[in-house]
TrEMBL record:
It is a multi-pass membrane protein. Its EC number is 2.7.8.13. The chain crosses the membrane at residues 6-23, 55-76, 82-102, 160-182, 194-216, 240-257, 264-284, 290-312, 340-360. This is Phospho-N-acetylmuramoyl-pentapeptide-transferase. It is found in: Cell membrane; Membrane. The keyword Transferase applies. GO terms for molecular function: metal ion binding; phospho-N-acetylmuramoyl-pentapeptide-transferase activity; UDP-N-acetylmuramoyl-L-alanyl-D-glutamyl-meso-2,6-diaminopimelyl-D-alanyl-D-alanine:undecaprenyl-phosphate transferase activity. Pathway: Cell wall biogenesis; peptidoglycan biosynthesis. GO terms for cellular component: plasma membrane. Mg(2+) binds at N190, D268. HAMAP family: MraY (MF_00038). Catalyzes the initial step of the lipid cycle reactions in the biosynthesis of the cell wall peptidoglycan: transfers peptidoglycan precursor phospho-MurNAc-pentapeptide from UDP-MurNAc-pentapeptide onto the lipid carrier undecaprenyl phosphate, yielding undecaprenyl-pyrophosphoryl-MurNAc-pentapeptide, known as lipid I. It comes from Glutamicibacter uratoxydans.
Length: 367
């Protein structure tokens, strides 16, 4: 528990200390947000606001993770140490953040609202996603547990194994499955990041949930308890809990500057990085299908875009919503930005609570 406090506190402190300096630098360089022409008219005032705020909290997470393990070692505290699962989360978190950084960089220097082309994004995200998926099936520990498995998981691994016809097919199907999850979460967070503080606040709750789940999985690990039918076979739950706390702390620090009126936006650097981390947590904690509930806000916002685009094409130009993603529909319906953000935070909290309730109640019922 002391590690969680140190990690979260350190990432919060680093973000709060260095974000104002970063904002001053971006303002001096005039690296501001280019607002989309097809967005709500009320967002025009946001043009020129510094962006790429994700750079600071991404770096804060990396520094805090390694520094926390160093501090715990110096204090002689018992910990799992730096683990394969922890490094894999950081890999997907950082690599997706890099894709977002390239996208933001192009937008800023070319003074346009579009950065990387869709194909460039797909290729880069695919390369990193495939690498993550392949690596996640490696590095077995003393109990022969790898960070991920080819079994589809809900609250733990199910009996549905993608390797039903052999390990090679299992690897291929798992790579496809993992990249489906990664694409869904990165797009979901990216679409949610349209109002001051909305994606940041929702992400804090999601990472908080994975922190609690990691603690529980560590306490109820199959290596620690005798009830094998209700225990958890997760490779490094303690380290995943630490990273969940670190991510929550960094984003709480960022929210101080991202709340309306935002002094800085996270940009694609931040939203893609967060989406990558969420996907990594779902896969490595063996709770892939539960992600639909825990990240329910990201899911419904993504669905609103799919519904809008699909209906527009099928109906010959008609729309279901006044504007997509969903948060902009409510803005155009007369809700203030603050009301949309707070009410969507409430929805995000309800989804997270439902996910945690399902996770815990399954253990209680099985017991």
């Amino acid at each position: 528990m002391i590690g969680l406090i140190i990690g979260a506190g350190l990432s919060l402190l680093l973000t709060v200390v260095f974000m104002p300096l970063y904002i001053k630098l971006l303002t001096k360089k005039q690296y501001g947000q280019v607002v989309r022409d097809d967005g709500p008219d009320s967002h025009a005032v946001k043009s020129g606001t510094p962006t790429m705020g994700g750079v600071v909290f991404v770096l804060a997470v990396f520094i805090s993770y390694f520094a926390t393990h160093l501090i715990l070692g110096l204090l002689g505290r018992v910990s799992s140490g730096i683990t394969a699962s922890g490094l894999l989360v950081l890999f997907l978190f950082g690599s997706m953040g890099l894709v977002g950084f390239l996208d933001d960089f192009i937008k800023i220097f070319k003074k346009r609202s579009l950065g990387l082309s869709p194909w460039q994004k797909i290729v880069l995200q695919g390369l990193f996603g495939i690498s993550f998926a392949v690596l996640a099936l490696q590095f077995p520990n003393d109990l022969d547990l790898t960070p991920a498995s080819t079994a589809i998981s809900f609250l733990r691994d199910t009996n549905i194994d993608l390797a039903f016809a052999g390990p090679m097919l299992g690897l291929v199907l798992f790579v496809i499955w993992a990249n489906f999850i990664i694409t869904g979460t990165t797009n979901g967070v990216n679409l949610t990041d349209g109002l001051d503080g909305l994606a940041t606040g929702a992400s804090i709750m999601v990472f908080g949930a994975y922190t609690l789940m990691g603690i529980w999985q560590q306490n109820q690990a199959c290596s620690n308890v005798n009830a094998l039918d209700v225990c958890y076979s997760v490779r490094d739950p303690q380290d995943l809990a630490l990273l969940g706390a670190i991510l929550s702390g960094a984003l709480i620090g960022f929210l101080w500057f991202n709340a309306k009126p935002a002094k800085i936006f996270m940009g694609d650097t931040g939203s893609l990085a967060i989406g990558g981390a969420v996907a990594a947590f779902a896969i490595l904690s063996r709770t892939e299908l539960l992600l639909v509930v825990i990240a329910g806000l990201f899911v419904i916002i993504s669905l609103s875009v799919i519904i809008q685009v699909g209906y527009f094409k099928l109906s010959g130009g008609k729309r279901v919503f006044k504007m997509a993603p969903l948060q902009h529909h409510f803005e155009l319906s007369g809700w203030s930005e603050e009301n949309v953000v707070i009410r969507f935070w409430i929805l995000a909290g309800l989804f997270v609570a439902a996910g945690l309730g399902i996770f815990y109640s399954e253990w209680v019922v099985a017991l």
